[in-house]
Each structure stands twice: as structure tokens, then as C-alpha cells.
Amino acid sequence: MRREEVGFLIQSLKSAACAGTAVDTSAKVESLSEDMSCRMIFGKKYMDKDFGERGLKAVINEAMQLGATPNIGDYIPCLLGLDLQGLTRWIKETAKVFDDFFEKIIDEHVERPKEEDRQRTWSM
Questions:
Q1: CB proximity list for 45: less than 8 A, separation 6 or greater
Q2: Could you give the residue ranges of the DSSP H alpha helices within the chain?
């Protein structure tokens, strides 16, 4: 799997070199890392469009930003219920995007064995 993904990267670099176009190597390496991670974790590559309107990178960056944002309510407990920063709403929106994506992955994994069973039945 890693060799295949690195091969795709090298092929894209070769084609860019033949065309004489500039290449953003940082973006290419980031994309390689994302593709390999998706294939290892989920079993296939997922494009940004598969992860909602905002895309995979944007949602992950948003989740990291949410995790790093201090909540005023943590320091002043009486303000916790007021959600002055809008963090609760933001967290719920981001969690909904992740939940929808994970539901899609689970549905794909549930359907996959059924399709494999059908193929085995036909081949026998």
C-alpha cells in the first residue's frame, strides 16, 4: 500500500516535471500522508468531497482548533451555560460532520461482506 501511494506521488512528480510545471512539494507530501492514513484506517482513499462540503483537511483543522481553544466557562463556571464564545454550537456542528462521515464508513463496511458473499455464491 505504501509503495503504491509513493509510486503515485513519484508518477505525479514525473508528469509535472515533463510538463515543466511548478510543484508544491509540501502539498504533495501532505496529500501522500493523508491518502496513506485513510487507506490504513478506513481501507480506501477518501477525497475531500467525501467528507462534506468543507473537506477533510478543513474539518480536521477545525477540530484541532476547537481542541486548542480555551473555553471561558472552564475558568468561570457560572458562564458555562451561556456559551459566550459559541464553542458548544461549533463543537456540535463539527461533531455532526464527523458522525455523518463515520456512519458512511460503517455502512460501507456492513455492505461489503454482503457483496463478497454474493460473489462467492456465484463463483461456486
A1: 35, 38, 39
A2: 2-19, 25-42, 56-68, 72-75, 87-123
Answer whether 52's CB lies under 8 Å from 100's CB.
yes
State the helix-helix crossing angle for 56-68 and 87-123, rounded to 10 degrees.
140
Side chain identity, residue 77? P
Rounded to a whole number of angstroms, the distance between the first and last alpha carbons of the chain is 30
3-state secondary structure of 3: helix
pTM for the model stands at: 0.64
Set of cell numbers at residue 120:
462467492
Q: Where do runs of H (alpha helix) occur along 20-71?
A: 25-42, 56-68
Do the Cβ atoms of 41 and 102 come closer than 8 Å?
no
For 91, the grid coordinates are 463543537
CB within 8 Å of 99: residues ≥ 6 apart: none
pLDDT tens track for 55-94: 777 888 899 999 999 999 889 999 988 989 999 999 999 9
